[in-house]
């Protein structure tokens, strides 16, 4: 269990573990990458030390197109941590990646990379909607967020 | 020769404290009170207890309990992980220990002060354990948010509606209204109350969530042979199973190929394989209900209906007393008490003893399940 100091008015920062650290390092460069097995090539998420298919410990990080679709979403209401309560009800979406639909990333749908978590009109939240990744920096960490594709 | 647990052991004592939003006693004291009540119910001396099982989330260790109640030498102890997923496994582990001669009198318990205790999401300094880095920063903070995500997808795929979730909440509330020990005794629920209540994590509203409860429960397990000499009619542990599906990931099973078929499916396959009867022969079920959507998912997982049919199964009063499958006859986690599902075990015993406040006539078989969504467990009880 990892603890992180977080001021009451700040969103929680990702606390990378050894396996997940590359994801956040690539994110800081504006790249969405997913761990892949260097032996058999299959993608896996969340990251882990070895491949569940061929048991190789060699991995690489493959760049994704950054496009996907909303698989599901929720709109949390208080009681919540103060920083989240301040923006509630906001959305949390689960995006299945266009390149690898079985890999689904949790995130937020926003109107621009730095917009608040409640910036998208809830009426526009729809399972199946096409989205693309953007990145925003918060508290020294870069995190992916998602915007609706113009249709 | 292959050993079998089938009917080799029985639950012979049950005990519980009061359930309330706030109780003055400590978790340790509540644990001891529930355990002593269960032993008294069984007519077994505390000094005879030689096995304990509880949850890894249990704050009171077996060392403390054994010392406090005056247990003898203890030869088996076990703790099961994954919160509410561990409830039925406590009984399963003790049944295994007793059936294989590692111990003779086992006590399982859960004591919890969640009504008056802290809520993790109110603690700003602590990030919950993995997979925190993939979910918490985005505001997927609470179990309600995590299960709400699955619920929305389930509703989308299968046409389930909030009315189906209401059917679940209503069945549990109606049973609690008949149970004087339930927190929601004499507090009826209406469809209007449900539909207009505040959202917690849309699509889940207030009444889709379990209660915050202070309280403790315990049960006593002995061999079938010993059970015949106990005070009450034995309730046999017919089949037990745990379930951790391939590629499962905690409460957020979103990375599995099929997130809507969770640990219940895995546990169910083993549970029924070991049993002399099937879902169609279950008289009454106690199905883990931390959140209403867990019921349709579990109905499918344990084989009471087909994939995607769990919501429709709740229609026409099927879950009510006198319905096709009465569930959570004490009120469940939604309306009796949320003590990580242990009340469901004791309610199963009450049904098979014939003493439930919402007794199913001639109930002889009962399924009890633990938390769906997390690595889980289940038991089949028979009289
Ligand atoms: Zn591989």
UniProtKB/TrEMBL annotation, chain A:
Q: Using the record's annotation, list all stretches that form the ChsH2 C-terminal OB-fold domain.
A: 61-135
Which Pfam families does the protein's record reference? OB_ChsH2_C (PF01796), zf-ChsH2 (PF12172)
Under InterPro entries, the record lists:
ChsH2_C, ChsH2_Znr, NA-bd_OB-fold, Thioester_dehydratase-like
Provide the ChsH2 rubredoxin-like zinc ribbon domain boundaries.
24-58
The record's Gene3D superfamilies line, in alphabetical order, gives: 6.10.30.10
Task: Report the PANTHER family cross-referenced here.
Answer: BLR3430 PROTEIN (PTHR34075:SF5)
Q: What is this protein called?
A: OB-fold protein
In the record, what lineage is assigned to the organism producing the protein?
Answer: Bacteria, Bacillati, Actinomycetota, Actinomycetes, Kitasatosporales
From TrEMBL, chain B:
- Kindly give the Pfam families that the UniProt entry links to this protein: Thiolase_C_1
Q: Which organism is it from?
A: Streptomyces spororaveus
**Gene behind this chain?**
ltp2
Which residues does the UniProt record annotate as the domain Thiolase C-terminal?
A: 257-376
InterPro entries documented for this protein: Thiolase, Thiolase-like, Thiolase_C_2
Q: What is this protein called?
A: Lipid-transfer protein
């Amino acid at each position: 269990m990892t603890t992180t100091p977080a001021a009451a008015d700040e969103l929680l920062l990702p606390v990378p573990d050894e396996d997940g650290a590359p994801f956040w390092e690539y994110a800081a460069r504006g790249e969405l990458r997913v761990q892949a097995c260097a032996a058999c090539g299959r993608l896996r998420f969340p990251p882990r030390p070895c491949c569940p298919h061929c048991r190789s410990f060699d991995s690489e990080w493959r760049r994704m197109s950054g496009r996907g679709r909303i698989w599901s979403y929720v709109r949390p209401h208080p009681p919540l941590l103060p920083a989240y309560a301040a923006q509630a009800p906001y959305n949390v979406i689960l995006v299945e990646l266009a390149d690898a639909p079985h890999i689904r990333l949790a995130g937020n749908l926003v109107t621009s990379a730095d917009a608040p978590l409640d910036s998208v009109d809830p009426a526009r939240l729809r399972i199946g909607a096409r989205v693309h990744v953007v990145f925003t920096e918060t508290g020294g960490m870069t995190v992916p967020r998602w915007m609706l594709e113009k249709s | 020769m292959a050993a079998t647990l089938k009917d080799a052991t029985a639950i012979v004592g049950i005990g519980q404290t009061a359930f309330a939003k706030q109780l003055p006693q400590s978790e340790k004291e509540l644990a001891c009170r529930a355990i002593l009540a269960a032993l008294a119910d069984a007519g077994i001396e505390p000094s005879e207890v030689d096995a304990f099982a509880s949850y890894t989330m249990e704050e009171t260790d077996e060392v403390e309990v054994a010392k406090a109640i005056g247990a003898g030498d203890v030869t088996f102890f076990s703790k099961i992980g994954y919160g509410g997923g561990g409830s039925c496994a406590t009984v399963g582990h003790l049944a295994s220990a007793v059936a294989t001669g590692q111990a003779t009198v086992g006590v399982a318990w859960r004591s919890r002060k969640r009504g008056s205790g802290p809520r993790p999401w109110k603690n700003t300094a602590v990030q919950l354990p993995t997979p925190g880095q993939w979910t918490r920063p985005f505001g997927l903070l609470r179990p309600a948010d995590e299960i709400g995500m699955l619920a929305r997808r389930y509703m989308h795929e299968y046409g389930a509606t909030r009315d189906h979730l209401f059917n679940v909440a209503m069945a549990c509330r109606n049973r609690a209204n008949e149970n004087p020990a339930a927190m929601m005794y004499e507090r009826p629920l209406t469809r209007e109350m449900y539909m207009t209540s505040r959202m917690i994590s849309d699509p889940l509203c207030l009444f889709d969530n379990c209660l915050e409860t202070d309280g403790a429960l315990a049960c006593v397990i002995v061999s079938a042979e010993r059970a015949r000499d106990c005070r009450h009619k034995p309730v046999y542990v017919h089949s037990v199973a745990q379930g951790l599906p391939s590629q499962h990931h905690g409460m957020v099973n979103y990375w599995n190929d099929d997130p809507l078929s969770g640990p219940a499916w895995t546990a169910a396959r083993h549970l029924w394989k070991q049993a002399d009867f099937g879902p169609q022969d279950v008289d009454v079920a106690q199905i883990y209900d931390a959140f209403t959507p867990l019921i349709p998912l579990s109905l499918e997982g344990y084989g009471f209906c087909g994939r995607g049919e769990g919501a429709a199964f709740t229609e026409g009063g099927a879950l009510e007393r006198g319905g096709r499958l009465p569930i959570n006859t004490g009120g469940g986690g939604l309306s009796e008490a949320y003590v990580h599902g242990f009340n469901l075990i004791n309610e199963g015993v009450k049904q098979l003893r014939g003493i439930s406040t919402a007794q199913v006539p001639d109930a002889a078989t009962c399924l009890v399940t633990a938390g769906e969504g997390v690595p889980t467990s289940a038991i089949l009880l028979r009289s």
